[in-house]
Amino acid sequence: MSATSYDGYEGLNRLALDRAGQAEAFDAIGDRYDDAFPHKEGQLASGAWLSEALPAGSRILDLGCGTGLPTARQLSAAGHRVVGIDLSPSMVTLAREHVPGAEFHRLDIADLRGGRLGGPGSFDGIAAYFSLLMLPRAEIPYALGLLHDLLRPEGLLALSMVEADVDDFTIPFLGNSIRVSGYLRDDLRRVVHDAGFDVVGEDAYAYAPASTDVPPEIQLFLHLRRA
Using CA atoms, how far apart are residues 205 and 201, in angstroms rounded to an integer? Predict the structure, then answer.
């Protein structure tokens, strides 16, 4: 996968309209997202690893930045150059308000092909917290291959997923419906390895949202280096 030019990742095009539907759900959720998920110890710890492992002033992509909290703010406050993307216009607006020192764009991951926001090797690090779980499993290897190409050699990826054996599964979420995918942890390790990443660290957290109908979950955080 990593040897293939990301311009060939046609797989990321297939469900663009469906992902737009996901974005509409998050537009409706808006800043209620942060109210429902107030405690993000795992994400903060992973963000600290990414921030501290990279040189000061590194260019970092926040994929699926949401409201900009906590990751874009955390990385920006540490002196990194943060570029956040999200499909939801409401989330991008909130992120710009919360983290004025960062750069945010309303973009889909597929829009990053062809040099948008840079090109191969244009990022020192990438944070992808619970963003790839919004894709069907068939698209996740393509997305990881694209992220691999966007990183400089030995660049770092902080990735989180929910541990679950599901593929494009519809769940209720803050009064809306979204579709999610997940892996059991051994399967997730295999998928990231096949995409050209070495696992240099791993954590798991049990998480129960504060005010949502989503049941408690196991969150997996992988710290990856481009091989």
Answer: 14
Bridge pairing between strands 197-207 and 217-226: antiparallel
Q: What is the CATH number of domain 19-216?
A: 3.40.50.150
pTM attached to this predicted model = 0.85
Q: CB count, 10 Å around CB of 165?
A: 10
Q: What are phi and psi for residue 145, nearest 5 degrees?
A: -65, -40
Q: Is the bond preceding residue 70 a cis peptide, omega within 30 degrees?
A: yes
The C-alpha angle with vertex 206 and arms to 202 and 211, in degrees rounded to 5, equals 135
Q: How far is CA 124 from CA 10, 140, 161, 165, in A?
A: 25, 21, 21, 31
Q: β-strand 176-180 against 103-106: which pairing, if any?
A: unpaired
pLDDT single digits (tens) 12-22: 554 444 555 56
Measuring CA to CA, which residue among 129, 100, 142 is closest to residue 10?
A: 142
